[in-house]
Specification:
Layout lengths: L9 H9 L2 H12 L4 E9 L22 H11 L6 E8 L7 H14 L2 H4 L2 E3 L1 E2 L6 H9 L5 E3 L5 H6 L7 H4 L2 H10 L3 E3 L12 H13 L5 E3 L1 H4 L3 H13 L6 E4 L6 H8 L5 E2 L6 H4 L2 E9 L2 E4 L9 E6 L4 H9 L8 H18 L4 H19 L4
Parallel strand pairs: 1-2, 2-3, 4-5, 5-6, 6-7, 7-8, 8-9
Antiparallel strand pairs: 10-11, 10-12
Helix pairs in contact: 1-3, 2-16, 12-13, 13-16
Length: 383
């Protein structure tokens, strides 16, 4: 059965992706290392500009709805047709403009009405906000939620002030959801309250994360976007902290929306349990990617993997990084493609880096198979 696209832009985006040499190289990478199954552990659905609450601002709201049927159509067109099976972890887009309880309800209702063959490709998570009750959260589990997503964008301090980095984990994580997830073995995707451009992970945030991991020993915490750590120093520091504290079974990371090859290389070389993720539909509609730079004599210059210390990574795309677009143009950086493609290119480049540093074929195969499906199968108890 062929899934049907409900988003009018999706067929255009799919055609652009399929025409790209990056996509073709990525397929060759999957074939070379025996990747016959992909788990996307970070995929969003959204209601577009409809059904927003109150007089919420329209900024960054999706233009058109992106549904679970669209997710299946995308993966059918890109991978299923090439003999590569897929599964996608799906949750609604956690925006302050949406009533998240209503959006969760719509997701589970939609899945219940889907053709069973199509529905089995999708693993639903509920977006949990700080004010939701334990009964409400348990209700999502009874309707089929296989995990939870929590983000600072639904915490009241962010709604009031609009600053992610002002928020603590205590303010954004629902304690009843933590208890339910811990007792029932449900994973939790966490978007940390820190900016990608921040040079270091705040000690207070790291301490909170460690305390939660110790308090809930059965909890699988998945840090979205590599924990927002997209400079070589920042990801190295986070990886070292996880390893030094023996938290590799508690803290996992997905690579959704990460495009910097040196950052991906560092993550690939660690023993952290990594998960593939895309951040669709955001990564389909945002054209551009993250660029890494530093200041030299008061001027921006591109950074490379050897640069340490005060390196900055920032998203330069359709909706972000306007002040850096001129710099990107001067440096000859291509921004004219969906972020999704640049992420695939980052994986390709990171794999090439592994080869150049002497990693053998068996080692690369293990890294990629863990990334694309084996770690996810462990997470969800797939035999």
């Amino acid at each position: 059965m062929v899934s049907i696209s409900e988003n009018p832009y999706l067929p255009i985006i799919i055609n652009e992706i399929k025409a790209s040499p990056i996509y073709r190289k990525f397929l060759n990478l999957l074939r070379e290392y025996g990747i016959k199954s992909i788990y996307d552990t970070h995929a969003h659905v959204s209601s577009g500009r409809e059904e927003i609450i109150g007089d919420a601002p329209a900024g960054l709201l999706p233009k058109f709805p992106f549904t679970v049927s669209d997710i299946n159509h995308l993966y059918d067109a890109l991978f299923q047709c090439m003999g590569i099976e897929f599964t996608a972890v799906v949750f609604d887009t956690p925006l302050a403009a949406y009533d998240m309880a209503r959006k969760n309800d719509q997701l589970f209702t939609k899945l219940a009405k889907m053709d069973p063959f199509e529905a089995q490709k999708l693993v639903p998570f509920a977006v949990v906000t700080p004010e939701m009750s334990g009964d409400q959260i348990q209700g999502y589990v009874e309707r089929g939620a296989k995990g939870f997503k929590m983000t600072p964008r639904t915490a009241s301090p962010y709604v009031k002030r609009g600053a992610i980095s002002d928020i603590t984990l205590t303010e954004m994580l629902n304690p009843q959801a933590l208890q339910i997830a811990n007792s029932q073995g449900l994973p939790l995707v966490v978007h940390l309250p820190q900016l990608v451009v921040s040079p270091r992970m705040k000690p207070a945030l790291r301490e909170e994360l460690g305390q939660i991991a110790m308090k809930y020993p059965n909890l699988k915490i998945i840090l979205a976007h590599l924990g927002q750590s997209q400079t070589p120093d920042k990801i190295s520091e986070l990886v070292d902290w996880i390893q030094e504290n023996g938290l590799q079974n508690n803290i996992w990371m997905d690579i959704s929306a990460v495009t910097v090859p040196s950052v991906l290389e560092t993550a690939f070389c660690s023993n952290i349990k990594l998960l593939f993720g895309t951040d669709i539909d955001f990564s389909l509609t945002e054209r551009g990617h993250y660029i890494m730079f530093r200041y030299q004599d008061g001027q921006r210059v591109l950074a490379d993997e050897k640069d340490k210390g005060s390196v900055i990574t920032a998203l330069v795309s359709t909706s972000f990084g306007d002040q850096l677009k001129g710099f990107a143009t001067e440096q000859g950086i291509d921004l004219d493609a969906p972020l999704f493609l640049f992420q695939l290119d980052g994986i390709l480049n990171a794999t090439d880096r592994l080869k150049k540093r002497g990693q053998n074929r068996a080692g690369i195969e293990r890294i990629l198979q863990n990334l694309f499906f084996k770690n996810a199968e462990t997470l969800f108890g797939v035999q």
